[in-house]
Every structure is written in structure tokens, then in C-alpha cells.
Amino acid sequence: MSGNTRAAYLLPYYLWIVLFVVAPVVLVFYYSLFDVDGHFTFSNYAQFLTPVYLSMTLSSFWFAFLITVFSLLVAYPAAYLLTRTKHKQLWLLLIILPTWINLLLKTYAFIGIFGTYGPVNAVLGMVGLGGQQILFTSSSFVFVSVYIFVPFMILPIFNALEGLNPSLLDAARDLGASKWTAFRRVVFPLTLSGVRSGCMAVFIPALSLFMITRLIAGNRVITLGTAIEQHFLVTQDWGMGSTVAVFLILAMGIIMVVTSGTKRRVRHGK
Amino acid sequence: MANKNRFGNMYLVIVFLVLYAPILYLMYYSFNSGGTMHKFEGFTLQYYKEVFADTRLIIIVINTLVIALLSSALATIIGIMGALAIHQMQNRRVKNTLLSLNNVLIVNPDVIIGASFLILFTMAGIKLGFYSVLLSHIAFSVPIAVIMILPRLQEMSPSLVDAARDLGASRLDVLTKVILPFIKPGIYAGFFMALTYSLDDFAVTFFVTGSGYSTLSVEIYSRARQGVSLSINALSTLIFLFTVLLVVGYYFIMRKANRNGKKEPAAEMGVPR
Question: Where do the ABC transmembrane type-1 domain residues begin and end (chain B) (predicted)?
Fold first, then answer.
């Protein structure tokens, strides 16, 4: 009896899983097997394995890697310093607040800031470097992406640092470790889980960005996300778009398995 | 030591400055009579008037709010069911599978969600527009609601439910009088997170809007591609103020909910996208 009532009121949730989690992924795999004219074929996969697509995949990963590394470099010290402030919850809230503002608006702001007559160029002019083309370069793309993702990196690291037992640090200091050694040997290893989830929260979306590339990089950077958007909405070649999506899903799956594997090991080690 | 502290504070100040600079920059130039995002010529409210006179834009804002409120309400309801389903699951393996399936849409890149939903709606014969956008916003908000509600459910002592059952409460009574009140903070948190995700979403909506229907992000994207227009700045200033109100409201609700709990509100606010 209880099984039946349970099934009845939980039905919408299971329906959601089937319709919006399982079905879309299956459909993407299915569509990747058809060409533009609707013929069953493996040509999309053959095409993906040509240098054009492989180098695009490589550069997509490279940019995602750069964005993740720079975000980490900015976020770790910031998170560390945040845990030392008074009213740290308030400061953390202020770090998170910008993430609640529409992504598009923040990206749009950089069109003005990096523009030919924007403040960055004005400063460069004053220093004597003269006007530079900042917008529509890959470095402005990386900068804006890091700007967007930094809070998502700060948050898990902050939480990991907060969860750290302070007596461990005292112990390290008592045993004669310098501040730097204590950080390197105690604090950093123990907050690796936060670093890892921060990197995940940055790396995967960074692989699939497409609006920032369009608005800031002016099509100079082509990521897997841009390629998917292009195939689906511009050239209407859903088969090829799905094939790119399949590779992105596979890449993500691998990343997830690798990271969850290490997590499990850590848990067992405890 | 003091020196080091000063250095650290300076670093934080710089981080905050950079984080807020673009937002303040947008707001500042929304008052520029010069019509550009450089060279401030004079103060004007012209662009705010433009925003309020632009019926198309106002309809889009209303669309966005309707979608956000409806989708997060429905997603929260489904999310409650999902959290209950996962919580009640006895078999560990099935439970973990269910949890992984739940999280697929959180870790999946927006582009893939958008593209796969586009295929789904086209195959199902759903016309792109209001319903496709609503359905996809519900779809990607459900796992967020589940994630926010589940921890509350797990904190709940099972003896509470047993006691209610012993005292003669029916299944429905247990749900409405014991479980739901207990997980209320989680429900609010899930609703607010879903709301902000829906308001913020661009990539998924961009794929499933079709031609006649638009939400704010999609509209801003197409306007921004045409170049700078200060009515976007005026609009963003208004949105910023609205967002701050929303966050403050959320903050106080969470603080009230957590007054007895150990967790601080901000620590729960960020679910990585």
C-alpha cells in the first residue's frame, strides 16, 4: 500500500527525470548520428576527428584551463583573507552579490570599459602606452570570464577554510613550522576539496561559454560552446552540433569520474 | 604583522573594486546625456524615461518575471517531491543513482541543456515560445530546489515522524503538519535560488525562445550585439536595485530560519553553475 501512494505523489519528479534528464541526453546521442539531410551516418564523428575540430577542442580546453588557473590564483588569497576579516559573512555576501546580477549585463559593461574610448584605454593613454585594441582579443575574453567566475571559486574555498580545525594550525606552529610551511603542509592540503569543487564549478562552464566569446572576443575565440550554438542556431546542422555536444558530455563525464574517484579515496583515507 | 595585514586588506579592497567596477560603471553612464559609455557630458534621466516608454521592453520584463515566478514555484513543488523521493529511498545504490541523475542538469553546461531541450521540444511538437521557456526553466530549477531541501530533510529526526504516526496522524497529516513545516527554510531557499537562476539564465532560454518571445537576457544579448545603448544601462541599474532587494530579503529569511541552526546564511547561497 505504502509503495503505491509513494509512487503516486512522487510521479512528477520521476517524470521530470525521464523527460528532462534522460531523454535529452539520449536525443543528443541519437541526433549525432544524422547528417544535415537526415540520413543515418557516422560522418559527423569522422568530421569531428579532423584537425579543424580537434584543434578547436584543444583551444577550448586550453582557454578553460587558463580561466580556471587565473580564477584560482585570484580566489585563493581572497578566500583566505576573507576568513580573517571581522564580519566575514557580510563580506562573503558582498562577494556573492555580483553573481546575482545578470551575466549579460556584466559582460555588456566590459564592452564599454574595454572599448576604444573606454577607461582602460584612457589609463593606457595617460601612462603613455597609447590606445590599444583591447576588446575582441583572447586576453579580454579570459579576463571577463575570470571576472565572472571568481566568486564561484571563492565560495567553496572559503567554506573549506572555514571548516578547517584551527587547532591543527596551532599544532603546526607549536611544532615549529613557519607560517608558510604551515600553510603549505597543513592548510592548503586540507582545503583541496574546496579547490577541487571550485575548479569544477569554473572549468565546465568555461568549456561551453558562448555569449562572452561573441560579445567580448568577437568570434576570435571559438569554444565548444560557440560551435554548438553555431551549429544549432545558425547553420541548422543539428547532427554536427549534437556530435560536438556528445564529446563535451564525454569530456565532462571523464572529469566527473576522475574527481569523484579522488574524493572517495580521501574519504576512505580519513 | 600589521604590515602584512594592510597588504591583505589592500588585496581584498582591489578584489571588491574590480568586482563592483563594471556594475557601478554601467549605473554611472546610465545618467550620461552624451549617449555613450565614455565621456560623461551631463546628467539626464532620459534613458530611464526611454525604458518606461518602451512597451516592448516592459512586456519582456513582465515575461521574465512571470517565467521566473511560475517556474520556480512549480520547480519547488517538484523539488519537494524529489527530495522526499531521495530521502525515502532505502536502497543505497538506487538512492545514489537518483542523486546523480538529479545533479546532471546542474553540472551539464548550459549550451548542452539548451540544445538538447531544443531537440526535445521540436520532437515533441511543442511550439517554441512561452511554454518551451517555462518548461525548460522548471526543468533546470528542479535539481537546485532538491539540493536546497534535501539537507533539511536529512537533519530531521525520524522520531518526529514516528511520534506523529503514533499519535494517529495520517500520511497526509505527517506531510503537511510535520515534514513541510520542518523543511520550510529549505523550501524558501530552493525557491529563491530557482528564482535567481531563472532570472539570470541566458544560454538555455536563448535556444528555446523561438522568434516571437523573448526574456530579458536574450533581449540584452541582441541589443548588446548591436552596440552600446544607454537604455540597457538604465535598465541594468533598475535590475541591480531589484536584485539587491531580493538578496536582502533572502538574507533575512535565511537568518531568521537559521537563528537556531549553526549554519550561516551566505554559506548556503552559492550553488556552482
Answer: 61-250
Distance from CA of A120 to the nearest CA of B (A): 11
Nearest neighbour of B272 by CB, restricted to A93, A197, A208: A197
Q: Write out the residue range of the structural domain in which residue B83 sits.
A: 54-269
Q: Does any domain span residue B82? A: yes
- Please indicate whether, in this complex, the C-beta atoms of A13 and B203 are within 8 angstroms of each other: no
For A204, nearest residue in chain B (alpha carbons): B109
Considering the entire predicted model, what is its pTM? 0.85
Q: Given this model, what pLDDT does residue A92 score?
A: 86
ipTM of predicted complex: 0.84
pLDDT of residue A91: 86
Q: Residue B93 belongs to a domain with what CATH number?
A: 1.10.3720.10
The answer to whether residue B103 neighbours chain A at the CB level (below 8 Å) is no
Q: For residue B179, is it within any domain?
A: yes
Assigned superfamily of A51-267: MetI-like (1.10.3720.10)
For A74-91, give one letter per residue: b (16+ CB within 10 A) or e.
bbbbbbbbbbeeeebbeb
Q: Which residue of A has its CA nearest to B115?
A: A232
pLDDT of A67-121, one tens digit each? 999 999 999 999 999 998 888 888 888 888 888 778 888 888 888 888 877 788 8
Nearest CA in chain B to A79: B12
Per-residue pLDDT at A265? 43
**What residues of chain B, 195 to 254, have a C-beta less than 8 Å from chain A?**
196, 199-200, 202-203, 206-207, 216-217, 220-221, 224-225, 228, 232, 236, 239-240, 243-244, 246-247, 251
Domain ranges of chain A: 51-267
What's the domain count of chain B? Answer: 1
In a domain, B210, yes or no: yes
pLDDT of residue A261: 55
Looking at the domain assignment, is residue B117 inside a domain? yes
Below-50 pLDDT ranges, chain A:
1-3, 263-270
